[in-house]
Amino acid sequence: MIKNLIKLKKATMKDLSISWIKWLNDKEVNKFSKKKNKIHTYQSQKKYLKETLADNSKLLFMLIYQKKKVGTLLISKISKTNKHCEISYLLGEKKLWNKGLGTKFINLIIRYILKKMKFNKIYAGVRSDNSSSQKILKNNNFKLEAKLKSHFFVNKKYLDYYIFSFRK
Questions:
Q1: What pLDDT band is residue 37 in, cutting at 50, 70 and 90?
Q2: Which residue, 46, 77, 90, 145, has most beta carbons within 10 Å?
Q3: What is the rounded distance in angstroms from the CA atom of residue 22 to the CA atom of residue 41?
Q4: pTM higher than 0.70, yes or no?
Q5: Helices 131-139 & 101-115, crossing angle to 10 degrees?
Q6: Do 160 and 123 touch, CB atoms closer than 8 A?
């Protein structure tokens, strides 16, 4: 059963790996990332990881499937006052796409945010052409809360930016 094979692990400096850097430099994996046009190296990722781990407004997790790191999930824009945060995620192992793992990982992070952090709202931004991520969020009861029209210019056309939210 998939549920017993997946988990979230808080990231540490030991999680820096060549496979993570490969995901970030893979144009298909990184297609919807805001950092897709950047070349990622071991040094740049080490700097990012160090800064992210030191930032109190962020929590970085590794996505684990069958005891192997397969992606990352970032909780950011943490507002303890307003009890909300943003999530972003990357399932780096393409062979695991379209198997329901994204939905399961998001379900795990929702439970973590609601129970451990005691927040009442989680939100995520998604480009309008990223139907897979939209499906993952909808499968976890996220609702479309806002549309930012013509927010991105990609391949000579404008795309909208959707903001989905989950409320307790």
A1: confident
A2: 90
A3: 9
A4: yes
A5: 50
A6: no
